[in-house]
Amino acid sequence: MLSRDTMKVHLLALLLVIGAAVAVPAVSAKIVEEKDGYIVMTGPDTLNVDSLNLRDMSLRSSSSISQGQSQWYATSVSSGNTAFYSGLNWGNPSNSLTLTIYAPDSLFGPYYDDVDGVIDGRINVQITRTEGLTSGTWRSNVYGHSVTGSQSYTYSAYAV
User: Higher-confidence residue: 6 or 21?
Assistant: First the structure.
């Protein structure tokens, strides 16, 4: 049988563990921009390409880029789509790429590596509008903002 003092110590330790767990903020998506009825969010789970069926992927490309170079991509957005997902991954935070997205009726970005609060060589954004995205061609620009040599990357985009 535990003494009353031992039980108090165990209870205090348990409360400290629970308090520490509650005090640690959870990493979640955050709103980075709101305009023209669109909401732009970013976070670690915004674009999980591995969880998608390849038939859902409108665009997936691997390439490389140099300082000051731009590369353009086009994604078709259909009527009734309410979310556009875009992911740029180069994995080398010592180089800096930017991502700018051009909808037929609005401009989003440019977004830098730290848009989600973490410098990790990735930019993942989700653009939503409850009444539906403007259909047509959405263009994305990957720009070599500050690149030493050549930087390889992957870019993915799709709309649902």
Answer: 6
